[in-house]
Amino acid sequence: MVKRNKAHIRKKREKLLRTALIMAIVMSMLSLAFVPLAMAATTTTISEVSDDAPIIGIDLGTTYSCVAACKDGNIEIIANDQGNRITPSYVAFSENGERLIGDSAKNQATTNPSNTIFDIKRLIGRRFADETVQSDRKLLPFKILGDSNGNPVVEVRQKNNDMRFTPEEISAMILQKMKSTAESYLGKEVKRAIVTVPAYFDDAQRQATKDAGAISGLVVERIINEPTAAAIAHGLGSINSKGEKNILVYDLGGGTFDVTLLSVEEGVFDVLSTSGDTHLGGEDFDQRIIKYFTKMLQKKSGVDISGDQRAIQKLRKEVERVKRALSSQNQARIEIEDLVNGVDLSETLTRARFEELNGDLFKKTLNPVKRVLKDANLSKEDVDEIVLVGGSTRIPKIQSMLSELFGGKKLSTGINPDEA
């Protein structure tokens, strides 16, 4: 069942990126600030893109990233060297001097926690003094320090040397992985890219993302808002529909949350309002469960693992699996042999307890929904469709709360119903 959930999330992510890339390539090639959907929809083969100057689309996510490219007139989501279409946004530095990116980096996180960097998207474009950065310092297993300019940097140790990297540099390493994946598939060098970002990213975060692209050797032609791309994908089948329709996109991913309200009429989209939280997502739900089991273990066994990053990483990996399982079942077992000093962890987590632990965070996501309605001067009854994007929207409680807010309205849980 867990594998099915992963496949569902992967398909939604691929469809979103494929459509965003189609739209962005057309926009980039025609150098337009705005393109009616009808124009984009008739250009699905992207014949304007030169094979000699390929352009790729990258979804640079908090927890996972993926890349798409145009080959032989078709947009394809490209599998990495492990055969996976989504790549963990992880970078690790081993003691022997090797740098690992993606699956290999995540796979060794439990044995090398202080030198394995993840969730870097939560730091990019922020100041070291930011409250969210200070909060992350307490939760993440690697060192986060401030540089002379007041910006955050991460510190790792390799071959007895301490090295510091900016969030842009770490992000660039992930982008380089995406670039290399695309180049292997296309058989030629890639220099241009379109990158999707949360709609609620501010100017500093967007510029930092562009800077990461430059460091990676890519020219970032466009920065595309993720929720807008999702709405475009959702509306592709309604180009010929008459009358104005209001669509609300609720995008809850691993580390960021966006709500965008758009109007569409005859295939032309107009963004009415946007809100969200660039520091709220599935990772925060995981952290609540980690804290819960850490306290439980201390109470039952007298063992405190809060300062043991290897144990925390073992627990984090299992918690992620259990959380996904609870989207389709009422309870799940968490089993970790030798979590620390021969102590095992064997417990059951129910969906009800998971919802209780994260109830305030779930409710917190409704505030931006109300805000976009207020900013657009619309009522809940004025919303015609609600589109869910992001792996965390598979959580049943989130779906029920959102539907209830809109008087029981049915939610669109997949851009293509056949892939939901």
Structure, briefly:
By secondary structure, the chain is an alpha+beta fold. It is 39% helix and 25% strand.
Explain how this protein is built.
The protein has twelve helices and 18 strands. It is globular and about 65 Å long. The strands form five sheets. Strands 1, 2, 3, 4, 11 and 12 form a six-stranded mixed beta sheet that branches. A four-stranded mixed beta sheet has the order 15-14-13-18, with helices on both faces. The chain has a three-stranded antiparallel beta sheet with strand order 6-5-7. The longest helix has 29 residues, at 2-30. The chain is α+β, with helices and mostly antiparallel strands and 420 residues long. Keywords: ATP-binding, Coiled coil, Endoplasmic reticulum, Nucleotide-binding. InterPro entries: ATPase_NBD, BIP_NBD, Heat_shock_70_CS, Hsp_70_fam. GO terms for molecular function: ATP binding; ATP-dependent protein folding chaperone. Residues 305-332 form a coiled coil.
Q: What characteristics describe this protein?
A:
Defensin A-like; Actin, Chain A, domain 4; Nucleotidyltransferase, domain 5; ATP binding; 18 strands; nucleotide-binding; 12 helices; 420 residues; 4-stranded mixed β-sheet; globular; alpha+beta; 6-stranded mixed β-sheet; ATP-binding; disordered C terminus
